[in-house]
Amino acid sequence: MSGITGVDAAGGRLRRGAAVLLEVLRSEGVDYIFGNPGTTELPLIDALLEVRDVHYVLGLQEASVVAMADGYAQAARKPGFLNLHTAGGLGHGLGNLLNASVSQTPLVVTAGQQDSRHTISDPLLFGDLVQIARPAVKWAQEVAHADQLPVLLRRAFHDSTAAPSGPVFLSLPMDVMEELSAVDIGAPSQINRQAVAGGLPELARALAGIAPGRLAIIAGDEVYGSDAAAEVAAVAECLGAPVYGSSWPSRIPFATAHPLWCGNLPTQATAIAEKLGAYDAIFALGGKSLITILYTEGPALPPSCAVYQMSSDVRDLGRTFWTPLSVVGDIRASLQALLPELQGQTQANAQAYHAAGQQVAAERQAHRAQARADVLVHQSDAVIHPSVAAWEVVRAIGPDIAIVDEAIATSSDVRLFLESAWSAQYSFLRGGALGWGMPAAVGASLGLGRERVVSLVGDGAALYSPQALWTAAHEKLPVTFVVMNNQEYNVLKNFMRQQKDYISAREGTYPAMDIVNPSIDYQALARSMGVPSTRLTRATDIAPALEAALATDGPSLVEIVIAAG
Hints:
Layout: E1 15-16, H1 17-27, E2 32-35, H2 42-47, E3 55-58, H3 62-76, E4 80-85, H4 86-103, E5 107-113, H5 129-133, E6 140-142, H6 149-161, E7 167-173, H7 174-178, E8 180-181, H8 200-208, E9 215-219, H9 221-226, H10 229-239, E10 243-245, E11 261-264, H11 269-276, E12 281-285, E13 306-311, E14 325-328, H12 331-346, H13 350-377, H14 386-397, E15 402-406, H15 408-417, E16 426-428, H16 437-447, E17 453-458, H17 459-462, H18 467-474, E18 479-485, H19 490-497, H20 503-507, H21 522-528, E19 533-536, H22 542-550, E20 556-561
Parallel strand pairs: 2-3, 2-4, 4-5, 5-7, 6-7, 9-10, 9-12, 10-11, 12-13, 13-14, 15-16, 15-17, 17-18, 18-20, 19-20
Antiparallel strand pairs: 1-8
Helix pairs in contact: 1-6, 3-4, 3-16, 8-12, 10-12, 10-13, 14-15, 14-22
């Protein structure tokens, strides 16, 4: 009896809990398990020998594992599954688990637990996994018996994608994974989540009642999750309205080449308020689009600017700012229903809306031309200016390669220079905890069917998760890592410079913010993990070197030395 392990069984055949788990994963369409194994995960690792169509992606540290699953889930638009190593491994992964939670990435997170018969003796590596995970997930539970696995796993996959989407957690004791069970795993439920919001005729009248040119649309991260870029564009064109992205985005969910795209909002409340002061109202699609970093006096939204919002998450509506009307529903399905209503309400004034859209497009072109002119001023600097690096990198990448960005020193310029008809090209570090970008790019490549991905990462951020280089090489993934190296924590220095009462700002001295003495050899680091690399110090070399790297079959690293300060 103890030798029965088969995983192809339906109900009625005894097999171990780990085999039951893999049966459920296969039925849920799981292609990859992202993990880093330890003693408590050995039953699952052993069961994998009988399942050739579920591929285990080895990450060398748990924070990297979580970010790989995050990048995969975002790119594939379905839940990522991962397996961590008991309390210590879960603890290692918490930073990126919090990132996933803030980004509302659907993840089914599991961790091996000590044999429940063993826990009374306080064994090595034991901890209360449910309590450790709970602050970073939608819910957490320990599986008590192998027979519970089908229900709890299917519940986890369901709840990870239910609004608001995000990670869920299951603790898997070793004895549960080894327990024999004849449980029937059943089949995945088919659930249509495309709920159409109510109140759309009223919303159409309200939006049409705003003077042409006085309404702005904010395309939040939820637009990407709903795959609603085309619908947002149609509404924007109908209203002649500019489309802005979130201040601190997880995605740019809109075509950056669209004439009504006006870039992402700034990250300070005063700057956001200044930008939105030109409008009488905003139409926010999704939630949490006005994230700020350091505190500034006053609200992000001017008192004269009304908020209309659409989200699948009812808790986000009216959360921070009063709204005269907001609606609950799937963004794509609801905009499809709203558009005919809106077209009817705006038809009589169509010419004015068209003129407003033309004005937005003209201002956008002027802004981009000025940005390009600013780059040209620094084109011949002795040390590569960050804006020049951003321009050359974006130019070399082109419009059709996915970008995963964690290079804070250049991220604003990168977003400014993007020009793509693809609304899924760009993703960013929404949660703010460094160490996400490099492994997320690895996961994104897998989620896109092993397609080319570019990881933009700062030199400081690159040191949080260099293990991603090894996984990219091991899996032979076409991921190009671009390290923007200014040998400092640039974003922190800039924040300190803004605080005029800081001693650091007055003296120009910033403790613990320079990555020197010794400097990091990123070339040696990459080569040590099987990744070819090159180092660039001249702006004219960026595009040729990056184009050459993008033409290779496997991973590569390009280090660009940029100016500090």
